Structure formats: structure tokens, C-alpha cells
Sequence to fold (332 residues):
Amino acid sequence: MYSTDLRTDKEKKSADQQILDDAELWDTFQARIDNGDTIEAKDAMPEKYRQTLTRQISQHAHSEIIGQLPEGNWVTRAPTLKRKLILLAKIQDEAGHGLYLYSAAETLGRSRDDMVADLLSGKAKYSTIFNYPTPTWADIGTIGWLVDGAAIVNQIPLCRCSYGPYARAMVRVCKEESFHQRQGYEIVTTLARGSAEQKAMAQDSLNRFWWPSLMMFGPSDSASTHSSQNMKWNIKRHSNDELRQRFIDATIPQAEFLGLTIPDPDLKWNEERGSYDHGDIDWDEFWAVIKDGGICGKDRIQARRAAAKDGVWVRAAAEAYAAKQSAKEQVA
Ligand code: BYC
Fold:
């Protein structure tokens, strides 16, 4: 359809030329980053910076859109009208996050249509966490508490990311994630203080979502391919392991407060580090979910493909309406 790459064709060509011709661009660019400058859409930037950001922001957008599906599973079965309204509002927020993020990614030159095509073909990645099923109502609480909680820890530093459009999108996203985290914790609190069955449901959900939530931060630092360059470019401000540890340390007291047990027998407070030691993460599972889609990957992509197909007439109608409006404006 259209792209919000703000550069004219001439500017794009000259930027490409500059990238090819000007080896100094990297130094000049790095100096701007080191100076704490914000990079904007029309600024000259190394092609690799453009590519890694397009990759990360589009994966992030896909995660928001796919992330609606596990929660959408409970809209018709939320236990009360109030719970249903809150859940609908949250899912709608996730759609909004996807839209801000696709727009931010488009400023780097790829169209939203292209990015979505990559998602639908199965080429593009999205967060592994959304390939886990949500068989119980407690999972809706746990997603808010842990998944949105992990997202906040990961995304607060992204508000200071060097790329302006991404950083600005993150500010609003984080405010909303913070509300999502609280509503999730409130659901889990209600269950943990409810009947024995309700508490057991909350514990079972925590057991299933704990380890996948830790995987949201990406592979361990030693296996992370993008971290070192992206930290130099101030896209990432902290490593995957640092943020994961921050999340663990913040979440354990929350579980203890509810009388729930984190499913990690090796969890131990380390006085010297002032932090929790934790057990090994099953990285084979992580890579397998990335590669094969885990339990729900096929269903998730199928659902997005069906939505794209069913929405053809809506997009056609919107385009026809826009064309009509613009024809009217030209006459006026
Ligand atoms: N799942 O070198 P690394 C939400 C890939 S939405 C799948 O460390 P990087 C919410 C990685 O892409 C939350 N793939 O990469 C929505 C790379 O592969 P490629 C989504 C993963 O980019 C609805 C390879 O592994 N949040 O909260 O430096 C409802 C090597 O990794 C994952 C974001 O997207 C994963 N978990 O760091 C509720 C945040 N982890 O691309 C909630 C923005 C890694 O080379 N993204 N991979 O083929 C980031 O901060 C970073 O991209 C990551 C990974 C920390 C995720």
C-alpha cells in the first residue's frame, strides 16, 4: 500500500550512495550515538543500523499482533462482564501497539504490507511466548503479570533507544503495559486468595509460564548475535541476561506475597551479588519453538492468515473511501 519512509526518492538514493561511498559515515554516525543524539528517519545511517532496527521493530510489531491471540481465546469466557471489558480493552491496546510499531518500522523504508507478508509466510519471527497455549482463565492473569511484566523490563530502556520513532512509540507502549501488568497481577491475586482450586489454577499457570517468560529476553548473552553491535548503537541499553535478572529479582517477591512458588528449585538469594541465582533455562526448547513454532505456532499463523483474508473487503472499502475523499478535495 504505502510506506511512511519520510525521505524523497532523491534523498533515499543519496543516502544509499553515501552508505556505499562514505566509509567515514560509520565514524560520524558512531560519534553522534556516543554523543547521545537521537537518530531521526531522514538522517544518514549505516545500512546495517537500518536493517537491524527494521528487523527488531517489525518482530516487535508482529509480537503485539500475534500476542492478541492467546488472550482473545478468553474473551467469550471471561468470568464476569467487568473482566471481559478489561480484557477487550487490553487486547485492543495490543493492536494499537502493533500499529505504532509498524509505523515506526515504516519510517525505515519497508512497507507495512511487506512486513505483514513476512509474518503470514512464516518468514518473520515473533516472540516465542505467544506460541504457548492459554487453557485456563488464570493464564490471562499470568500473561498480564509475567508477560507484560517482562515486556516492561525489556521496553523501558527502549524508550531511550537511539532511533527516535521507536523510542517515542515505546513511551506510550510502556505506560499501557504498566496498566496491563497490574490488571494481570490483580487477577492472579484474586485467584491466589480464592478457593483452593483457584489458587491451584494460579500455581499451575505460573508453573507453565515462568520459564517461557524468562525466554522472552532472548538467548543468553554468549549466544546473542545482535547484542554487542546493538548496544554500541544504543538500540539496546542492557544485555539480555541483565534484563532477565532484573525481571527475576522484581518478580520473586511478588510471587512470595501471593504465596505462590516459582517453579525453580535452584532459585536462591545470592547475598554477594544482591540478586537471585536461578536454574538453567532450557535453551533447546527456546530454539525449537523459534524453529518449529512450538505448541501453537501453526494455529497462530493460520489465525492471522484468516484475518488477512477476511479483511480484504474492509481494506478495499477503506481505500475506495479514501480515493473518493481525495477526489472530492481536488475538485474543491
Ligand atoms: N522470541 O541476538 P539476539 C508483548 C531471536 S510483545 C523469538 O539476542 P536481539 C506483548 C532474535 O530475533 C513483546 N525470537 O536478538 C504483546 C534473533 O533472531 P534474528 C515483544 C527471539 O534482537 C501482546 C535471535 O533470536 N517484545 O510484550 O538483539 C500481549 C538472536 O537473539 C526471541 C519485543 O519484541 C524470542 N523471545 O534481542 C502481551 C521487544 N529472543 O532476528 C505482551 C523488542 C531472541 O537474527 N525486542 N530471538 O533472526 C528486543 O528487545 C530484542 O529483539 C530481543 C532479542 C531482546 C527480543
About this structure: The pocket of benzoyl coenzyme A is lined by residues 55-56, 59-60, 63-64, 67, 94, 125, 127-128, 147-148, 151, 154, 215-219, 224-227, 230, 240, 290 (CB under 6 Å). The mean pLDDT is 94.
